[in-house]
Structures are given as C-alpha cells and as structure tokens.
Amino acid sequence: MFGAHRPASLKDGATLVNVGRGEPVDTDALAREVGSGRLRAALDVAALEPLPGAHPLWRQPEALITPHAGTFTDASAKDSATFLPRRSWR
After folding, report:
1. How far is CA 70 from CA 16, 19, 76, in A?
2. pLDDT one-digit tens code per residue, 15-52
3. Dihedral pair phi/psi, residue 15, rounded to 5°
4. Radius of gyration of the chain, Cα coordinates, nearest whole angstrom
5. Is there a smaller number of Cβ atoms within 10 Å at the N or the C end of the chain?
C-alpha cells in the first residue's frame, strides 16, 4: 500500500502512523525519509518482524516504535512513561 516512493510524496513534517498488519509500508523507504529529518513515524509493525536491532529506525529520534501487541499488561503504563519522554517530537 505504501511502497518505496510513497513516503517521499508526504508533506515535510508529516507523521506516518503504521499500525496495520502485513507490510503496508516500505520500512527502508520510511527509514530514509525519517533519517533525513523530513518525516516522523510511529509504528508497531514493520516489513521486517521483529525489526532487527541494527535497523536505522531504532536510532532515529523522530521514530516511535512500539511492540505490536493486542493487549496491555500491568507494565504497559510504566514502560510507556519511561519511553516517551526520551523522544524529541516537535
């Protein structure tokens, strides 16, 4: 649905939110756009599941990556509170 050229068509400063199943977004194309500083991303699904630890999206402050889970646990609120303040969302 969102192939390699589609993230490049989004407006500067846009945030792409990906919570769909399957491979709706080209993860490498998204990483290039986020890495350039042009886009932000919030995703819990990637073409590569799980997203490899060495993938560039993990190091990009404009990318929020959460585990793809269908439920919350007692640890969800604490983990979210710990994670979110470290992000530099504009």
Report:
1. 20, 11, 12
2. 888 777 666 788 888 999 999 999 998 888 777 777 88
3. -115, 120
4. 13
5. C
For residue 71, with 0-12 CB atoms within 10 Å meaning exposed, 13-18 middle and 19 or more buried, which class applies? Answer: exposed
Closest CA to 64 of 23, 21, 26, 30: 30
pTM score over 0.85: no
Residue length of the chain: 90
Contact 88, 61 (CB under 8 A): yes
DSSP 7: G
Please state the φ and ψ torsions of residue 16, each to the nearest 5 degrees.
Answer: -95, 125
Dihedral angle computed from the Cα positions of residues 58, 61, 66 and 72, in that order, rounded to the nearest 10 degrees: 140
DSSP, res 53: T
At position 21, the amino acid (one-letter code) is R
CA of residue 39 relative to chain centroid, distance: 10
Both tokens of 21, joined, read: 């199943």
Q: Name the 3-class secondary structure at 45.
A: coil
